[in-house]
Amino acid sequence: MSAITHSLVRKASRFAARHTLQRWLPLQRQRAVVSFSFDDVALSACTTGAALLQEYQARATFFVCGGLENQMEQGQLCHHGAQLQQLHRDGHEVACHTYSHLNCELQPLSVLRPDWAKNRHYLDQLGIPLSGFAFPFGAYDLSSKYAAAQRFSYSRITGGGMQQGRADLHALRAQALYAGKTTEQEIRNLITEAVEQGAWLIFYSHEVSDQPGPWGTTPAQLRFALQTARDAGCDLLNIRDAIQHYRAVSA
Ligand SMILES: [Zn+2]
């Protein structure tokens, strides 16, 4: 198969996966909800990030790979278990991102399933209950979407967009919050749109550092997003709590 054909097949597969096996959560049009999430969970997200969230009484979702504990990733030192326990005690959501940061689109289920189980065991040992999932690299196909749907209460993808009117719990859309890429105007526009549409906007990032890599945010940018969302009257809820909130208002 040529590279172009292969790329087209993957795009078609991703499109098919995106648009099948949906599980809709109705979102009543109301105050916008903004969720912040941190993937891989760098040490700085647990410390600098959590302190900033605390200032705004915001609770976030931290998508953890157990295999990254105390490891360096992209030049960033990652979490240790006690910090995840503290985040959990503080009302943040600690959720799964595979144990080994696997590309779920490329790995067979015979590899994925034991890896998920290993991360479950890692979180179990910390006393953290099973929650949702975020696909590493935002990569998934139909079989991994289906397998994740059987295991987790929700799955988050990347690739942009927000949830309006309804949310696919098996593929929640999210927007990058990257200091080198996302401008303040884009953040303002996204939050304005969320407010106007009564939508649910999810941001994702990695480290929270004054010198972040290409996939991280700065304390100043995170503060700007938190402040803009709060000034706009949005509820700042982690993903788990946002789902509970929408279920409660539609019950
Ligand atoms: Zn990741």
UniProtKB/TrEMBL annotation:
- Where the record annotates domain NodB homology, the positions are 30-149
Q: Which GO terms describe its biological process?
A: carbohydrate metabolic process
Family matches, as CDD domains: CE4_GLA_like_6s
Q: Which domain of life is it from?
A: Bacteria
InterPro entries found in the cross-reference section: Glyco_hydro/deAcase_b/a-brl, NODB_dom, Polysacch_Deacetylase
Q: Which molecular-function annotation in GO is an example for this chain?
A: hydrolase activity, acting on carbon-nitrogen (but not peptide) bonds
Print the keywords alphabetically.
Answer: Signal
Q: Which Pfam families match?
A: Polysacc_deac_1
Database matches in PANTHER family: CHITOOLIGOSACCHARIDE DEACETYLASE, PTHR34216
Name by which UniProt lists this protein: Polysaccharide deacetylase family protein
